[in-house]
Write a structure and sequence with these properties.
The structure is a single chain. 31% of the residues lie in helices and 18% in strands. It contains nine helices and ten strands. It has helices spanning 3-11, 44-56, 118-129, 167-179, 196-204, 213-216, 257-269, 291-294, 297-317, and strands at residues 32-34, 60-65, 73-79, 85-86, 90-96, 133-138, 184-194, 220-224, 244-249, 274-279. The protein has an eight-stranded mixed beta sheet, with helices on both faces. β5, α3 and β6 form a beta-alpha-beta unit. It is globular. It starts with a helix and ends with a helix.
Length: 321
């Protein structure tokens, strides 16, 4: 077991701590007077309108600690559910960025909520429209890499942003933060990641951790176009402690669908609830709501199908027990 793995083992019990272990810049909580989470189907026109809404909606900047060994202070952007919060608390989704980081390439050094990527803005709005809290986690900026990394730079990236050993600790720091917030149903939190963040989802939900992770961990995970090699850590066996859905295109130019098929087959052989959906001719990052990405028919078809599938998945997996 590596040093980061030993550290994770020592810290996961802290997820059960009652006292908040975070600092946050928060606004007053909305009244709690409803017990329903709204899940509505959306037409293509509504999706386009939702993209515009996502552009206009800003998350509140929060800070909290990673569970890594230096206890890195991370920055996040918290988006609250539209409408009243259920009396029993609302579910939540942690969103993990890809290799490019959380900020748009047009941010021009201004690293704040209004300059989040279009993809992250869209998904934050998508979940809050359905009654979820959404927390976008910045793993790169607080460690000195706010602009992220270009394609083809994997071998030269610094170890402190490793998606197998470090970023899962950021995800668990986010989980702990959300559980400290009034209004969040602390047993109904899911994890969603994109590309490098999706690899983090696969690592974070791996069933190689101490304690009853089915009780104290994430309820489910969504991994969009991950790299599935995971540095060879799960070469012999891979299984997850919670259900995971993996989505990617057959024309992905950055990561290997075949590698993900191998990993998913390994997980299923071990009895884990892990499934892979492959979209014909869709590219890496096919769900980006930009006009250029969605102008490709295969990307647009994959995106439309994906949005419905992930909604139904979390509706079931994050339902009240």
């Amino acid at each position: 077991m590596t040093r980061p793995q030993r550290h994770l083992s020592a810290l996961l019990a802290a997820l059960l701590a009652a006292a908040p272990a975070v600092q946050a810049q928060e606004q007053p909580q909305a009244p709690l007077n409803s017990d329903a989470v709204h899940h509505t189907a959306i037409s293509n026109a509504a999706v386009r309108q939702g993209s515009a809404t996502a552009e206009q909606r800003l998350g509140e900047r929060v800070v909290f600690r990673s569970m890594d060994e230096p206890r890195t202070e991370l920055v996040g952007y918290l988006f609250r559910p539209e409408g009243p919060t259920p009396e029993s608390g609302a579910p939540a989704v942690v969103l993990l960025h890809g290799r490019g980081g959380v900020y748009s390439s047009l941010a021009d050094g201004v690293y704040e909520a209004r300059n989040l990527t279009l993809r992250l803005k869209f998904w934050a709005a998508y979940w809050t429209d359905r009654g979820y809290y959404a927390l976008v986690v910045d793993s790169f900026g607080p460690r000195g890499y706010p602009t992220g990394f270009a394609a083809g730079t994997y071998s030269s990236r610094p170890p402190e942003i490793n998606e197998v050993t470090i970023r899962p600790l950021d995800a668990y720091g986010a989980l702990r933060f959300l559980r400290s917030l009034e209004g969040v149903a602390d047993d109904r939190i899911g994890l969603m990641g994109f590309s490098n963040g999706a690899s983090t989802v696969l690592s974070a939900l791996a069933d190689d951790k101490p304690g009853d992770m089915r009780r104290i961990g994430f309820r489910a995970g969504l991994a969009l176009y991950p790299g599935c090699g995971l540095q060879g850590r799960f070469r012999r066996e891979y299984k997850t402690y919670a259900p995971v859905e993996v989505f990617m295109g057959t024309a992905d130019q950055e990561v290997s669908p075949e590698s993900c098929r191998t990993l998913v087959d390994r997980a299923q052989a071990a009895g884990a609830s892990v499934n892979l959906t492959l979209y014909p001719d869709a590219a890496h990052g096919f769900d980006d709501p930009s006009r250029s990405r969605q102008a490709v028919a295969a990307n647009a078809a994959a995106t439309e199908d994906l949005r419905g599938r992930v909604d139904r998945f979390f509706e079931v997996q994050l339902a009240r027990r």
